């Protein structure tokens, strides 16, 4: 069925957006604005592809993508949390560095056939018409994205540690006065964001397009940043927004395939146009934005000496 085929591609296109955005959401909830998501994603993609090619295992590739993203996020954390560098400028530099470094690392792997991550099929359930292939015959990245969203929601709003993390993002001075290790918590949040971005990049090179192509993140990191705002810093909103933007991305590809008389340049720009429109609409509801935005987002913290 054509509808089923389209929905399957929507799921594949949405998964990296959800993974990258949920990691950034946790970092921002802790008060850290990391604009280097794109750079961490592309580094995760090349790390996963190289590791999978070297070992022959896509699962090792997936782990390598996570580790690469985490290590890259530590560079951001060291510069912004330990050296108190400007978070916006450092994040942009991280993206530029990631794009250049990944191109250099992956130069010898361009054109090589990738190792595709196999699907996990649940017996009986996978045979259910329409629903089975969509929900019970997917790769591990899809199931991890759902579990991470659910786990993040539970952690942030149902646990004491989640409350502490949100307190750090709302008022780091008060949290520090209560004896909370603000820098330590922010380091952990940044590393989680890096691991999720690296996982998203690994999905691109092991599932979405099982090969290495320079700059294969193709702006998805920026869309993930917009998704956090679209979701009003709520995990389940990230899941909803990820699939909405994934549907827009796939919709423009199918529109071209069906020969719809719309300029291809406009269709290619459509996902980013929708991103801008959504952000403008959200900005109109200032009350909702102020309620959910971490008050200390992007503000540096230097503990008392």
Mean pLDDT metric:
88
Order of SSEs: HHHHEHEHHHHHHHH
The radius of gyration over CA amounts to 19 Å
Beta-strand residue percentage = under 5%
Residues in helix, %: over 70%
Q: Please report the number of helical segments.
A: 13
Keywords: Cell membrane, Membrane, Transmembrane, Transmembrane helix
Membrane topology: Multi-pass membrane protein
Subcellular location: Cell membrane
Protein name: Nucleoside ABC transporter membrane protein
Please, could you describe this protein's structure?
InterPro entries: ABC_transp_permease. It comes from Martelella mediterranea. This protein has 305 residues and is mainly α. Helices cover 72% and strands 2% of the residues. Strands 1-2 form a two-stranded antiparallel sheet. Helix 1 (2-29) runs parallel beside helix 6 (140-158) and helix 11 (235-257) packs antiparallel against helix 12.
List keywords for this structure.
305 residues; ABC transporter involved in vitamin B12 uptake, BtuC; 13 helices; 72% helix; 2% strand; globular; transmembrane; cell membrane
How is this structure best summarized?
The protein is an all-alpha fold and 305 residues long.
Secondary-structure map:
Elements: H1 2-29, H2 37-55, H3 58-82, H4 87-105, E1 119-121, H5 131-135, E2 137-139, H6 140-158, H7 160-170, H8 172-177, H9 182-208, H10 220-230, H11 235-257, H12 264-284, H13 286-292
Antiparallel strand pairs: 1-2
